[in-house]
Amino acid sequence: MLSPSCTMACSRTCSRILGLSLGTAALFAAGANVALLFPNWDVTYLLRGLIGRHAMLGSGLWGGGLMVLTAATLISVMGWRYCCFSKSVPCLSLLTALFSSGLALLGALICFITSGVALKDGPFCMFDVSFFNQTQAWKYGYPFKDMHNRNYLYDHSLWNSVCREPSKAVVWHVSFFSTLLCISLFQLLLVVIHFINSFLGLFCSLCEKQ
Known about the structure:
- The protein is mainly alpha-helical and 210 residues long.
- It has one domain (4-209).
- 65% of the residues lie in helices and 5% in strands.
- The protein has helices at 4-36, 44-47, 53-57, 59-80, 90-121, 169-209, and strands at residues 125-128, 138-141, 163-165.
- A three-stranded antiparallel beta sheet has the order 2-1-3, with no helix packed on it.
- The longest helix is centred in the last third of the chain and has 41 residues, at 169-209.
- The protein is elongated.
- The chain starts with a helix and ends with a helix.
- It holds the Pfam family L6_membrane.
- This is Transmembrane 4 L six family member 19.
- Its main location: membrane.
- The chain crosses the membrane at residues 61-80, 92-119, 176-204.
């Protein structure tokens, strides 16, 4: 059976790994959101204001990115026990663990929900209105949002026949928002592990003192 001191050492090592993993995931989330602002790596769409609201919301930048990165830094600091955490009281460690978990949870959850809604609504692109009615006109919008009878995520024949500009708008949209969805789900899993790990560390810390 592992002693409390040994378990605490394992808990600190786990915090270091979790902090590094969350920080890396946050950087990837930020990168995926940046890519969504430049369809086909073309800056003109952003300058003309032709970027969808889900990408412009930037949940991968400030939610799954900055908020999670801040929490990851706190988790890493707790793992290495630098500065005030080296001899911190259990209550301070618990409060820090709760704050970092809550911050990462909120950021990842916002990114997860936004990405899910974005995939449901589809990309913002220029499409032919006559595809849906008899009016010949081109406009920017969300052509798949009100398409209740067909799901564009499964019907790949719509990917190149509806959106005219940017080229491969659907592929770009689905690829990066799916990436954000997976990253945020991974972040949520790491937060749960961190929460459990923090309570184990606190419990062993109390046992060692007794």
